[in-house]
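Entry for copper (II) ion complex. Fields follow.
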Amino acid sequence: MASSSDYSDSAGVTREYYIAAEDTNWDFAPSGQNLVHCMDQPAPCAIPKPYNHVFPAVRYIEYTDGSFTKPKSQPQWLGILGPIIRAEVGDSIKVHFCNHTTLGSAYSMHPHGLRYTKDNEGALYYGVNSSTSPGSGAEVHSGQCFDYTWSADQTSGPSKGDPSSKVWWYHSHVESSSDINSGLLGPIIVTRQGMANPDGSPKDVDREFITAFFIFNKLSGDEAGLMHSINGYIFGNLKGLIAKNGEQVRWHVLGMGNENDLHTPHWHGKTVLIGSPPAQRGDVLELLPASMITADMKADNIGEWQYHCHVADHMDAGMVTTYQISP
Ligand SMILES: [Cu+2]
């Protein structure tokens, strides 16, 4: 039975992040190989033509402090996504955001799910019913910084009966679609009050993975520039999704993109429980652009198993990798 404390908004901690938008190149297949499929030879084999795999990108890079000199490492499997921003319900989040890009574009950070004021919305648009103007954090120009303050209140967290943590997107929202396609997107995870470790991760799972299914469009629609990626990697170049036998693993699965981005992530080897009670048993999710789904897996089948989008064209174009359950 829920206690009254389940619904309180008692003050938590303030979690600070130092994040810069930076110009970079992103390699969607650092190995240069298709590591999963080869039609007539053992893997690996060359990425099939016409797939180029290195393109200019803009990414959210996390630093250790306000000097923005020491980048923080992030899990290999997180790929092109920005850092994981965490909160427990009741916490505040302060993001010190700087636009360190040099090509002249303004960017922002717009969070889904969290509570914010207009100035902290990080989105550039105008009101139609009144003369509402964009907030002061709506666009952060090249060379400038803005401190966003967001809060994780009860409406940001898992609802009654949901799994103990919940995923949300954040992304740049100046020219939203092109900003996101550049690579300015990342995850927020909010954990139920009383269920978080000091780092914000949930106490009742052993491991969380975040995977985003998104066809980056790098050559104005030309097939050779459609990167059918999971976390910005194609053809098995997303590595490091490794759990240990017996672990309780939580998968936060995200969609993004366009009308082509109808994805059906599928796990081989194990089923998952999807959503809140009565959770559905499945091994395929249904993702639309900007979808955010949490699924729990008991990792008890040792092996390396395929994890891919089940849309035929998408898996043929590279939206495939593996995850592993080690002894
Ligand atoms: Cu797909």
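NOTE: Residues 176-182 form the longest helix (7 residues).
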